[in-house]
Amino acid sequence: MRASLSLLGLLGIFVLVGFLEAPTVSDRDEKSNYYTIHDETESVSSIVDEPSLPDSTQYVLEETREEKGEILEIYREYEIYKDENGIVTNRVPTSNYEYLRYNTEENDNNVADFEYDTE
Predict the structure, then answer these.
(1) In percent, how much of the chain has pLDDT > 90?
(2) I need a labelling partner for 93 at 20 to 30 A (CA). Which of 14, 16, 46, 55 fits?
(3) Is residue 9 in a domain?
(4) Assigned domain for 4 exists
(5) Rounded to 5 degrees, what angle do the CA atoms 108, 110, 113 make?
(6) 56 neighbors 80 (Cβ within 8 angstroms)
(7) What is the predicted pLDDT for the residue at 108?
(8) pTM above 0.90?
(9) Is residue 57 a part of any domain in this protein?
(10) What is the DSSP string of 25-91?
(11) Is residue 60 included in any domain, yes or no?
(12) How many domains is the chain partitioned into structurally?
């Protein structure tokens, strides 16, 4: 008996909340909960300017230094933008670097060692 009364009370609360949260007829006229689809004649590409992609990338030697018997070369990546005639219009540096280390001391075979590091 007690359980059935609590279930009936819970059901009554759900029904009351449902009626209170339901939009009335006047609310439906003022606003809609649904999106309306408009016939758009402009294409999306004409509204939003798409960023241009680089034509190529290139690593450029930024710095060379000698430390601890090694030569360190630091290369920085640049984005290369060209116009329709193939002329470079813009070079934008990126945050990508490449590091080349060369051992200046000769080993037993008289061949210089080198390492290729990326970071």
Answers:
(1) 22
(2) 46
(3) no
(4) no
(5) 90
(6) yes
(7) 44
(8) no
(9) yes
(10) HHHHHH--SSPPPP---S-HHHHSPPPPPPSEEEEEEEEEEEETTEEEEEEEEEEEEE-TTS-EEEE
(11) yes
(12) 1
